[in-house]
Amino acid sequence: MEANNSGNQVAGALTYPDRNDDNVESVPVQPRQPSNLQGLLRFAMEATKSEDAPGTSEFSPMDDERRTFLEEALKSLTVDVPKVLMDAVKVLSDAEKMNSIQLGQELPDDVAAAFFNIQEFICDIDVANDFHKIGGFSIFPICLSSENATVRMEALTILAEMCQNNPYGQARALDAGLMYMLVQLANTEEGNFLVTCLYAISCMCRGYGPACDELFANGGGALLSDLVRNPNIRVRTKAAFLVSFLAINHPSAKEIFLENNVIGNIATSLDRGLDGSTSCTLHALHALLQGQELPPQVNDPKIKLKKVLEKLENTKEIKYAEYTDERKVLKNIMKILKNVPEVEDVNDEEADR
């Protein structure tokens, strides 16, 4: 039986164009699937050839001059990171150069560029690890002992980035004895320099128990207990955050903090009223109050903790929306202290009787 031709088609049936139909649009032959980068480029150009402007595209071997030009152009767009880091380390580990930068002096251009280049790449964890492997830690003893505060702060920033969420970096920093240097610096630094120092300590400690042990072994418990009442808001915030973190995550931290009058210092800080450090300070206090028994400091008539908290609870500002977290944490603390009796004010003369 012969196939239907155009003269005897069934009504409503789907029809397909005959090979000889003049109105058939020819489908261009697609290029072969590529197997490498060069083939992919050729595939893309051939597959989109119909969209090109009128003209022909011809492929021909690349001459040496053009090849050299393109290679140089590609090199200019890439960075040899290991070389950049090694050049920076060479500058910053030059003890004579770094020791010549005096107090208050602006950093020489090559020193400033070296710090910038390291900070530009070290946030990548693989680069951070490579930084240690190429001898990058040699800069820390020199830079952290500089009399120039900017040199110290830039080095602290690099150390913090090196250690943040990086167990390898934390372990290498601990091996290099840098926790001892950080605690010593934190006892002498002030303002933003101290904030950066606490940031580096935090990055070394968080998630790495051996660094926490080393922090307390070098007097970090007394340091942080004192800094929660520091006049600088950012310092108080950083210190309170660390106290809270350590009290929750490090077994011996709470007892060490309590031995160093941390609750008394927290009360002093909270007695200033609401500010940017209040949230972290309340969280630190809440962490310290966890456990079967309340610490005896909550009943200390000289600290007057509950009275300080009630004063804070009754301030008009704490009802504002921006203090939602403070209000919530304070409410939880007051529940914990609900059975703590009110403390009568006593003066020194009565206390001596």
From TrEMBL:
Origin superkingdom: Eukaryota
MF-aspect GO terms: adenyl-nucleotide exchange factor activity
Record's GO cellular component terms: endoplasmic reticulum
Pfam families: Fes1
Keywords attached to this entry: Repeat
Domain Nucleotide exchange factor Fes1: 37-130
SUPFAM superfamilies: ARM repeat
Disordered: annotated span: 1-32
PANTHER family given in the database record: HSP70-BINDING PROTEIN 1, PROTEIN FOLDING REGULATOR
Protein name: Hsp70-binding protein 1
Species of the source: Papilio machaon
